[in-house]
Amino acid sequence: MKRALVTGGSGSIGAAICRRLASCGHHVIIHANRHPERAALLADAIRAAGGSAEILVFDVRDADASRAALEQNLEQGPIQILVNNAGCHDDAPLAGMRAEQWHDVINTSLHGFFNVSQPLLLPMMATRWGRIITLSSVAAQLGNRGQANYAAAKAGLHGASKSLALELATRGITVNVIAPGIIESGMTEGIFDPETIKRMVPMKRAGTADEVAALAAYLVSDEAAYLTAQVIGLNGGMA
Fold first, then answer.
1. pLDDT 10s digits, 190-217
2. 218 is catalytic
3. Which CATH superfamily groups domain 3-234?
């Protein structure tokens, strides 16, 4: 049983990934910050279904807090599967965007990637097996009005992940990015109406969190051992 950490595990997509990884036989560490009660309920549901799960609470924007929480958890053993899913958006046209809007989105997605990934790497490398997945967005590939901060943060994850993949390629560790399009989730609820989705998405529908989770499950499997340094669009044909 491998230990898998999913940041932002209490959100719609994160929860779906947690459930799928648990069903694959992994011990899931559900990270939360603002909603630990949701993470606790998810852990209870996973255990009730026969899976293995625990919760871990810290703010990915805080480097010291992240390292302290992770180092304490690593006392139980290395984390060999990491899903960097924590993120946020705070939209505004760049001309009217406040500095704190820019920095908060960058700090959560991009700095959070470093704050969580870096402490886990040496223990993971020692096992000579690992899977790192980072959730990005179609906005990083196509851009999106009002989301310069979000697109910048997610695009930065592409370069960071590709570079990390090269650094870890000889250690049995793969690093890939999933870049979803419009996915039915709490983050997109109320933003895209059905007609807008039909206009934007060639498949004429939003994706589901379970479809994201299915791809994540494949990427962490042994069958995906030769797949690394890739940005995989899951967007119904948008890009």
1. 667 888 899 999 899 999 999 999 999 9
2. no
3. NAD(P)-binding Rossmann-like Domain (3.40.50.720)
